[in-house]
Amino acid sequence: MLRxxxxxxxxxxxxxxxxxxxxxYKQRRTTKDLSLTDAANxxxxxxxxxxxxxxxxxxxxxxxxxxxxDLVLDSHADADVIMELGFASSTFRFAGRPGVADSIKDLxxxxxxxxxxxxLQDHLAEHGVDASVVRLDGAVExxxxxxxxxxxxxxxxxxxxxxxxxxxxxxxxxxxxxxxxIKRHGVETPPNGIQQLVRRLQGVLIARxxxxxxYDIPADAVDAATAVAPGLESPTVSPLHRxxxxxxxxxxxxxxxxxxxxxxxxxxARAILxxxxxxxxx
Length: 282
Fold this sequence. Notes:
By secondary structure, the chain is an alpha/beta fold. The protein folds into three domains: 2-87 and 177-207, 3-Layer(aba) Sandwich (D-Maltodextrin-Binding Protein, domain 2); 90-176, 3-Layer(aba) Sandwich (D-Maltodextrin-Binding Protein, domain 2), CATH 3.40.190.10; 210-276, 2-Layer Sandwich (Alpha-Beta Plaits), CATH 3.30.70. Helices cover 27% and strands 33% of the residues. The protein has helices at residues 10-22, 50-58, 69-75, 117-126, 160-164, 194-209, 222-228, 257-266, and strands at residues 2-7, 35-38, 43-48, 64-68, 79-84, 90-96, 111-114, 132-135, 151-156, 168-177, 179-184, 210-218, 236-239, 245-253, 270-276. Helix 3 crosses helix 4. It is globular and about 80 Å long. The two termini are 26 Å apart. The model has no long low-confidence stretch (mean pLDDT 94). Residues 49-203 form the ATP phosphoribosyltransferase catalytic domain. It is found in: Cytoplasm.
């Protein structure tokens, strides 16, 4: 069976379980379950701390896993990213009191508190900056106020927590992260089931980002409508009982749907409908 590591808690866990469920895999019903066997799909799921997943996969104990790109890089595990999963986006940045620094070059000789020592040390080395890294577990916003560090390096979402601590971000982002599917580095022959897992996850991501659009239009306006919404390959066109009219079905990006409906109306389309896609294979 394919052995898959899944985050056991937090928002990363919730989103990972959701995408796996949409992909047709059985998932645990209680957080007390540490593992689950999906016999129908020949997969075993193991629910682990997000920070540990890259280590298990990198050592070959488990075949693949879902984790954050930041956690994978921070672990220095022997693991490669197979695909990006489109959720749990975050930005890793420097923050400090106003005026303490403007760029990474200003951090030479300073103390930097972080929960991502591996990522930070790599970033400092890449830019040739000699600074002291103070590793903390959990929230690091209080490190400056308590005198543990001069600045911090942490995941920034809205910045509200930083502002409450009297801090502001500065310099370029250190890393932009999101949830990723990983495998052990250097594995030339992937275990059975990985390609199926990847195809299913890709199908879910496409289904989330696209909708099916149907509309009726005069046959002589199909070319103009197709120029507006060509679809992934080409639209499906079927004759209607009404003479000279056809029904058209096409996949379009969800974010563009309203704009395309306006443009299709302008070229003569009527009865324009959009419906969600729950799963697909492209």
